[in-house]
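FAQ: What does the model actually see?

It sees only this:
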Amino acid sequence: MKFKALGAFAGLALLAACSTPPTATTSNSGAGMQTAGAAPGSEQDLVANVGDRVFFDFNKSTLSSDADATLGRQAAWLAKYPSVNVLVAGNADERGTETYNLALGNKRADAARDYLVAQGVAASRIQTISYGKNCPVAAGNDSASYQQNRNAITSVQGDNPQNCH
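And it is asked to produce this:
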C-alpha cells in the first residue's frame, strides 16, 4: 500500500515538474542579453538571444525592416562566434506549385545569406537550402499559418540534425 501511495506521489511530482515552464535568468553581458542554460554559440543561444527567423510577404523574397534588424543581430552574433557555421533554410506557404515554392524558398534563403555576407560574415560559413512548402512551421491553411511559413530560418550547423528546421 505504501508503494502505491509513493508511486502516485512520484507520478504527481513528475507531472508537476513537466508542466512548470523553466525560468530563464538573464544577465547583461555587454553585447546583449544572455539566457542562462543556453551554451554560448549554440542553436539555443541564437534562438533565445538573437532570433533565428525572418518573415516575408506573399510571393516576395525582399527583406523587410524587421528582417534587416534580425539579420543584423545574427551578423553581430556570428562575428562574436567566428567558428560557428550556419544553414539558412528558405520556406514558403502551401500555396503554389512545388517547383515555384522551391525556387521562392531559394530566393528567400539567398536574400538572408546575402545580407549576412554584406555585414561581413564569410560566405563560406553559410549554407543555404530551400524546403519550399515541405517543412511548414505552422499547421493550417489560414493567413496566420501562411505568414509563419513564409520565412528563412537560420540554424547552427551541427546543432540541428533534423531535415527540417
